[in-house]
Design a protein that fits this description.
This protein is mostly helical. The chain has helices spanning 2-10, 17-32, 42-49, 53-81, 84-108, 118-128, 134-145, 151-162, 164-180, 182-203, 208-214, 219-228, 239-247, 250-281, 286-302, 304-314, 316-336, 340-363, 365-368, 373-385, 387-402, 406-409, 411-431, 436-444.
């Protein structure tokens, strides 16, 4: 302990694993709210703009475009310079998109609001969506702050608490729109984003290794000092080295697939889809539909926390296999449900499986790609997040083909993909790599 104190004072280091986790979670919590940037008020924007369902779908997807494009390079960039600068750039870009939308609403809504504003609104959505890329950055930052035996817990807290944001937005913003109007509702959201960015600027700190590099130490000395302070996970190289190394590791792509189904094509797709599903299929008001969707998001997010601890205890492969099986059950119920109560039950079962599966997948990252955690997190978060852009249109096609009942029948897609993931997770149990610490212990005996 004395050596830790000496190192911290000698090199004027700041932060701690707990503070690093809190700040990373705050940035992700705020940044991820942007995936619901337009979806939370989708019917309102469609009516005000006078656009088709296809154009509305594109508008709803606009924040996901920047999420997909930015998660890979920004996640890998952490391996080069740490997370502080990437997070501040992403949050700053998000603020530009918010300011653009809020300004447009005050200037044009409702009297001069129309299809001529569609392209600018698309651009604002893409800019605002940059904040959701804090996911891959925060995953890498959290990995470097915590020892290997605490990865599941840390990832569960980060992903669980961080993912609550869209659920709160889905619940609160429709209410604010009804009380104060569209412009003021989005203005309150902008104030929150400004506050979150300011807090991260004031208290966000890189893990010790990156702070030491900034102070001029070479990588070997920086790693030695950081190890004395308790850091166990270190980057194998810079940004492009991390991307290259993780991309050539086939385990990265297995985890990408699992995450695509559980998160990008599962959790975030349904986060955007459920407000419309409850509103148009079950006839709920926009506020009530948002509340139901918010319950799904908050619950599915919080369950990641025990999901991470379960992964630490029982192994990510085992927990992933069980959680994907739970997703099959939930999706099957949703597929055949036309009444509110069974549909709600199916939604909650889906939230359970998706939340735990998300935690399980990222518990496996340091084990399967130990030398390029940032790069792997970028690929997984970026490409895995792209599942939203694929699944949402497919769900829409089911409605076009089958009519109103298509809102339910579309869940068969999630059921089928989840069943494949069960098989993949079981195979990982038998053919995945052994943890390095277990190999070392066996060698000692």
């Amino acid at each position: 302990m004395g050596q830790d104190v000496d190192h911290r004072s000698e090199y004027d280091l700041s932060g701690s694993p707990r503070r690093g986790l809190v700040m990373a979670t705050l940035s992700f919590f705020a940044g991820l709210t942007t995936i619901a940037f337009y979806g939370v008020a989708g019917p309102t924007f469609q009516e005000a703009l006078g656009i088709s369902g296809a154009l509305l779908g594109l508008l709803l997807s606009s924040p996901h475009i920047s999420k997909v494009l930015l998660r890979v390079p920004f996640g890998a960039w952490v391996d080069d310079i740490g997370a502080r600068k990437p997070i501040l750039i992403l949050m700053g870009t998000t603020l530009v998109g918010f300011v653009g939308l809020v300004g447009t609403l005050f200037l044009f809504y409702p009297d001069n609001f129309g299809s001529h504003l569609y392209v600018p609104l698309l651009v604002f959505g893409i800019l605002a969506g940059a904040g959701s890329a804090t996911f891959s950055v925060g995953i890498a930052q959290t990995s470097y702050w915590f020892p290997e035996d605490k990865q599941g817990f840390a990832m569960g807290v980060f992903g669980g608490a961080g993912n609550i944001g869209p659920g709160i937005v889905n619940s609160v913003i429709p209410f604010l729109i009804g009380v104060a109007g569209l412009a003021l509702a989005y203005s309150s959201w902008l104030v929150f984003m400004l506050a979150a960015t300011a807090l991260y600027f004031a208290y966000g700190a890189n893990p010790y290794y990156f702070q030491l590099l900034d102070k001029g130490l070479d990588s070997d000395r920086a790693q030695s000092v950081a190890e004395d302070l308790g850091q166990e996970v270190f980057p194998g190289g810079g940004t492009w080295d991390s991307l290259k190394e993780s991309s050539t590791n086939y385990w990265t792509w297995v985890l990408v697939f699992l995450y695509t189904v559980s998160y990008g094509g599962g959790f975030t797709a349904l986060t955007t889809w459920y407000p419309t599903y409850w509103n148009l299929f079950h006839g709920m008001s926009l506020a009530m539909a948002g509340l139901f969707a918010g319950v799904f998001v908050v619950y599915g997010s919080l369950v990641r926390i025990p999901g991470g601890s379960l992964s630490d205890r029982f192994g990510g492969e085992n927990v992933a296999a069980v959680s994907f099986a739970v997703m099959v059950v939930g999706a099957a119920i949703a597929t055949v449900s036309q009444a509110v109560i069974p549909a709600f039950v199916g939604m909650m079962i889906l939230g359970t499986g998706m939340g735990v599966a998300n935690a399980a997948v990222f518990e496996l990252v340091p084990k399967y790609v130990p030398d390029a955690v940032g790069g792997a997190s970028g690929w997984i978060g970026g490409i895995g997040g792209a599942g939203t852009l694929l699944v949402l249109p497919i769900l829409g096609v089911f409605v076009d083909v089958y009519g109103e009942i298509g809102y339910a029948r579309g869940f068969v897609v999630i059921a089928g993909l989840s069943a494949i993931c069960v098989a993949v997770s079981v195979l990982l149990k038998f053919y995945g790599p052994e943890p390095a610490e277990e190999i070392d212990e066996s060698a000692m005996h």
